[in-house]
Amino acid sequence: MNEFVDALRSEANGCAKSGNVRLTTFEVLSDGLPAVCDSRLCDLIAKEARSLELPAKFMVSGAGHDAAFLSHVAPTAMIFVPCQDGLSHHPDEWATSEDLADGTTLMLRAVMALDQREIL
User: What is the sign of the dihedral through the CA atoms of 47, 48, 52 and 56?
Assistant: First the structure.
């Protein structure tokens, strides 16, 4: 992360210099370590999504979630639903009732499938 921040700072300074402006502020707002989701849970969720004929893809989220903390004590994964214009964690975030229902159904199905296993 430090190398990334250093590279980003260097790029920002280069952009400012080429634009003949001065970069006045550059600060890291969050420096928490990334959480890794459990691959078995991710696979289970993807399998259930396919069974519901829902699109599924693995993605990285830069947002802070409870999962970042829970991942230290339990296997963790997340389900995201499509949002209008791809906006997430934004005042204009909006999802259809159908997409929210699909996400809820997917979560229920994943929990039920997980309940059928003796171990994760």
Answer: negative
Length of the chain (residues): 120
Residue 84 lies in a domain: yes
Q: Helix (H, G, I), strand (E, B), or coil: what is residue 18?
A: helix
Type of residue at 118: E
Please state the domain count of the chain. 2
Based on the fold, state whether residues 26 and 81 are members of the same structural domain. Answer: no
Between helices 39-51 and 97-115, what is the axis angle to 10°? 120
Closest CA to 49 of 117, 99, 119: 99
65 and 84 fall within a common domain: yes
**Long-range CB contacts for residues 10-16, cutoff 8 Å, separation at least 24:** none
- 48, 101: one domain: yes
Q: How far apart are CA 76 and CA 78, in angstroms?
A: 7
Encode pLDDT of 66-112 as tens digits.
888 888 899 999 999 999 998 988 899 999 999 999 999 999 999 99
CATH number at residue 111: 1.10.150.900
